[in-house]
Specification:
The protein is built from 8 helices and 7 strands. The protein has about 230 residues and is α/β, with parallel strands linked by helices. Helix 4 packs antiparallel against helix 5. The radius of gyration is 17 Å and the shape is globular.
């Protein structure tokens, strides 16, 4: 890995890795860190170019972020972990689990999407418009390139083939808000493609882990406690 990822660590026990969404950092999971650190070794990561983690020179893609996670787990000598990913973090978690299934004990994907069309049409159109504007601005304003790269993650990634999800045989929880930015049908489709996955919806928008932490944590805790 060409960079040193920043992360917060709390608690002891089996590792639980938390992956935040686009443009965020590990502080998004403040309610989850406090709650789950009572039972697990919680590691909340700032992904490449987010929070306190440097951008580095490697490609700024979802799959590169998954490779960064692989390197971090090796660095921390973690052979296997539960992984909880939100939004782009959920996409990273899916890519990681597909590439390294032996390193995932249980997988939780919250508000993930397999491809850009999984996002509600109006929202995706706005994201795409902002992306192209940022790309144009980056031609004369180097600082705009950071915005373009960040938006590009939602325009050009992750493009996960639905059929590939059949390979996921670890326990998987797919969870989203009832009024999520991700289409309800797309979330259901992800769950349908993963053998024996569990599907849950919580009343709320895309950010249910932050806005409904008691309900969110209870559902995740119940899933992690199952044998």
């Amino acid at each position: 890995m060409d960079i040193q990822l920043h992360y917060l660590e709390a608690g002891e026990g089996f590792p639980l890795i938390l992956l935040h969404g686009n443009g965020e950092n590990c502080s998004y999971f403040e309610h989850q860190i406090d709650y789950f650190s009572e039972q697990y070794r919680v590691i909340a990561v700032d992904t490449r170019g987010h929070g306190m983690s440097p951008r580095g020179e490697a490609p700024f893609t979802i799959r590169q972020f998954a490779w960064d996670l692989f390197d971090l787990m090796n660095e921390l000598e973690i052979p296997k972990a539960h992984i909880l990913g939100f939004s782009d973090g959920g996409n990273i978690a899916l890519c990681f689990a597909l590439a390294h299934p032996e390193r995932v004990e249980k997988l939780i994907v919250n508000g993930a999407n397999l491809y850009p069309a999984g996002v509600k049409t109006r929202d995706q159109r706005e994201i795409t418009r902002q992306y192209y504007e940022a790309c144009e601005a980056a031609e004369y304003d180097p600082d705009a390139w950071q915005d373009a790269e960040m938006l590009g993650l939602m325009v050009n990634d992750p493009y996960i083939r639905p059929r590939s999800l059949r390979k996921l045989h670890m326990p998987v929880l797919v969870i989203a808000g009832t009024n999520d930015v991700i289409k309800t049908g797309h979330t259901k489709y992800i769950a349908k493609c993963i053998p024996h996955s569990r599907l849950e919806f919580i009343e709320g928008d895309h950010f249910i882990a932050a806005s409904q932490p008691e309900i969110f944590n209870a559902i995740v805790d119940d899933f992690l406690s199952e044998y």
